Amino acid sequence: MSLHKKAEALLLALLITLSTPAFALSVTSLSVGSGNDWYTMGLGYNQDDGHSFGGYTAVTFSNNLVLNAEAKAFTDRIESNLRHDEIQISASYPFLFPVSKRIGISVVGSAGMLLAGNLGMQNIQTSFHSLISRDHVNLVYYDDQFRLHPLLSLRIQGGWLYGHALLGLELGYSYVHAWEQSLQANMFLSYASLLTVRLGYLAKDIEGIDTSQVIQKERYEGLRLSFSYDGGLLETSFYSFLQSGFSYGSFGINPLALSYSKTYQQTDFTFTSGVLYNMEGHQNRLIAFSFGSVSFETRHTNGPMLNHWEDQNDRMNLGSWLLGYRFLYERETSMFDPYVKTLAGLWRFNLQQNFTTTLVEEVRPSIGIETGVRIGTQRWWVIGNTSYHPRLAVSLHYVFGTDSLRENPAIAYFEPHTGPWILMAGIVLDIDHDLT
């Protein structure tokens, strides 16, 4: 039996073992998604290295038992030119201990297996890079073996509830036999179980079996900022290690949400996700959180530049963090509602040469205006307690003080990406949440 056939047989056996106790329970949530280090939210550096890509599946049952399977591909083309893969399969269960009406403690225990080594994920990456005309990441595995490691983890969380907001602290410990152990401490703020923002510290101790693993430890420990959003049908998450600049984001769906009872009546909170293209043809990822007419928004694009495609080791990371105020002309029965939004905030310009040499690192203030059309009536597309609205958007931004970004003739190829006028157009999706 080949190496990969053995890996597939082991994974199947693990899935069957973990799933057997849950067959008699009903499934309340089924999350399937993928992730990539392309998601930076404008922070750090996009080196297309480290935790490069992955995928996950999570099944939640009626008794709150959760089965997880997650695949991760790690690469290091900066130092060792090595790579390794990981697939983790585990089961977790939460225990809740209410202290009072506003204060509670939760304890989540997990157990499972980690499969690490050569799991063939280089083939997936090569195929995808060929599809999008990116350079192949041709690295070798530390050896042609894979290893199976039992794992245990425990997370303790204490929080104080005020209205829809939950503020708290959490501690987590994870032990993977003969591979690594980690300890983390976080502050967190959750809003209505939809959106959670964390700031904390992660420390790791590794066995150092794989040289690639040693390098990844240095990248993925230290001060970490993260957020997660679970909107029922759609979900997304992101983390950034602020000291190393490495980040990762994921996007997934829960198809079972399509069967949820329609309870939406009003909008208390809006989450927005979409893509906007600038005049140079680069895709910008938009994430926004809105309360009424006021929004906080981030746009980012990164990677090789289309006008400098011959050298894909020179990479930009452009991001903005903006406050917005929207004026919506809304009619109850109209399918198309125009709007205008004013924006102001900060714009970041970062340029890396050969992955590690910083040529540009500047932040500038900006103002902008956005206009477009929201599609659909208030209850046109309702799933559970959410209402979905596609929106066509065009935005124009002016960034102050960008002349200094264009003074170096050696990086003239970066000039088209530095403004001062930045025009974007695209399609986004507003997800309105009813919290009543």
In short:
With 436 residues, the protein is mainly β.
The DSSP helix count reads 3
Placed side by side, the strands forming the largest sheet appear as: 1-2-3-4-5-7-8-9-10-11-12-13
- Choose one word for the global shape: globular
CATH topology of the largest domain: Lipocalin
**Overall mean confidence score, pLDDT:** 91
The secondary-structure element order is HEEEEEHEEEEEHEEEEEEEEEEEE
- Structural class of the helix and strand makeup? mainly beta
Structure summary, number of beta strands: 22
What is the CATH class designation of the largest domain?
Mainly Beta
Instruction: Report the portion of residues in β strands.
Output: over 45%
Low-confidence stretches: none
CATH architecture of the largest domain: Beta Barrel
Distance between the termini: 56 Å
The CATH homologous superfamily of the largest domain is named Outer membrane protein
Keywords, separated by commas or semicolons:
single chain, 436 residues, mainly beta, Lipocalin, Porin, 2 domains, twelve-stranded antiparallel β-barrel, eight-stranded antiparallel barrel, signal
